[in-house]
Fold:
Amino acid sequence: MSTTTVAPLTTQDAELLVTAARNAAEAAGVTVSVTVLDAGGHLLAFRRDDRAVLISGETSTRKAYTALQLDAPTADLVDAVQPGGLFHTLPTALDRPLLFIAGGVPVHRDGRLIGAVGVGGGAPDQDHGFATAAVQALV
Structure:
């Protein structure tokens, strides 16, 4: 049996993710909050722009948590929680801070889930783009 060790998400990685997401948002003229969680769901980095709406801190964290727990971008899960969707009852079935709004993206290294980034403060499609840009900058 062969096991391959995959390097975990580091605080340096987390800072790079935050910076890349914020740079993408700034280029679009949007103020955001960015949350980075490690594979265990623990906070590695958080940053809220001075002018970002206060709730964006909470939404960025919940988006990251949801992307991590389901190992999928939250943008891909929005339809699944609509009436008749596969996960329709999931948001209310668990006592967890799940949020099915675009802006959360899992982070993988060598095919393994090592964390997630969440962005809040812009329109959902903007937040998804900023989070995706952050993950692409890490590679």
